[in-house]
Amino acid sequence: MSRMTQAMSTGFKVLAGSDVPAYTLEYLTPTKNKKIGDYETIVINYIEIGRDKKCAVHFDEDTPTVSRKHSAIEKKKEEIIIKNLSQTNPTLVNGRPVNNQWYLNNGDEIQFSIEGPKMRFNVSATGTAKMTGKQKMTLLVQQAVKPYKTYLISLLLLLVTSSSVLGYYLYRTLGDNETLKGNLADSQVMRQQLKSTLEQQTVMAKFMEDSLNQEREKLTRELKSQKAKNAALKDSIKSLASAENLINNDHIYYIEANKVTIKMSDGEDVEFDEKLWIGTGFLVDNNKFVTARHVITPWRFDISNEFYLALNILEQSGEKIIIDFSVKAPSGNTFSFTNLDFKLNEQRDISDSRQYEEESYEVKIANDMNTDWAVLRVESINSDYKSNASLSKNLKQLSEVIIFGYSYGIGGGYNTSPLASKSQVGKDGLENGLIHLTNRGFGSGNSGGPAFSYNNSTKSYEIIGIVSAGVGAEIGILVPIANVVVD
Fold this sequence. Notes:
Blueprint: H1 3-15, E1 23-27, E2 39-42, E3 46-50, E4 57-58, E5 71-76, E6 79-84, E7 91-93, E8 96-97, E9 101-103, E10 109-112, E11 118-123, H2 133-143, H3 148-176, H4 184-239, H5 241-246, E12 252-263, E13 269-284, E14 288-291, H6 293-296, H7 306-316, E15 320-328, E16 334-338, E17 343-344, E18 350-356, E19 359-365, E20 374-377, H8 389-392, E21 400-405, E22 419-425, E23 435-438, E24 450-455, E25 460-471, E26 475-480
Parallel strand pairs: 3-4
Antiparallel strand pairs: 1-2, 1-11, 3-5, 5-6, 6-9, 7-8, 7-10, 10-11, 12-13, 12-15, 13-14, 14-20, 15-16, 17-20, 18-19, 21-22, 21-24, 22-23, 23-26, 24-25, 25-26
């Protein structure tokens, strides 16, 4: 049964008076709008948890370790499962990270990122039977995930309309049917029922009107917020103008994975021919083309994605995985390659096992972000970018870093021109061998892009790092260019 069908089915049962099982999520950590002991009562089969305002359980911006869509909880028959939706922040149950999903038990403690807020999962002793009609409707509308919320509101409107038609039909029947006139007692009971139905319809109509007004106000606030963000982006672009003029972006490439070929041991080839994922790469001195390793072999870094997990399992089973990539730069230069063309450092990757379709399989996982680089030689194209390995290991706190890349694919494809952003070094030197930035201005799609810093000795911008990852909304992680090794 689809989630939409489940949402509709649950809505019918709850509004019809059935005792639908419920559970609660109790706040163990105080937040901006919640204190310890507050709780959420959940009746919908599928909810999402995060800082996105569309999530049924919504955390505010005072919890930066919580992702926009961090986790989901889903009822499956008698079981309740929690899933990790975030690609950057973990979900923990009783202190243990959830790799893909986990079955919840009464009293389990859920945490959103290490040192993040905590909630307790409790199976409610009572269901929905003793709730008032307004409580039921409020929970259904608040907890439904779009587009299921639209269907649930439609369901409520349908019930209002059908009740009105039924009441009118019964009224006319009583007026026309002369055989019922003698039964005054029954008529009085029926009139009382109709009056009660009318009162319920009035309450429901008021509730729907309030809900629609709240949605309208929310959309107005979001529009104002987006306008403010657009204005801030324009100011940021203006402030970067001088740096963009000094840094030629002709050799910053939009990377697109176009095809996966799995060469099976039985001689059969399995192909997926479509746009799969994107990233950024760049040419630097000595004809080196550099990007992040997780752009080239993402299945070693993210096995919460079922497709990547399947590729990892196949690779560890001895099958050959070949990815065809194409790249394009603002200069018009284009070329192609496969993952097998790159020099990578996989020596620190660790073996582990994961469940896939109820079977346990061996996988290999990149355990050290210092190895998140990939490099190949491109003899036919020269670049005037200079890299500085020494500077990449000795940056000072608050030093300015300029980053180029194709965030979320913007600027890629036919209009190839990367976006520029500005960040600052968070602390002197390296921590765990990596460069940590604050005021992060890049996102998905920027992976593998170059980071420039100004060298006062040469009076020029030089490459000091490769975009690797983001932590929360503010922190950025760079792999120092000193880590890249070319034979």
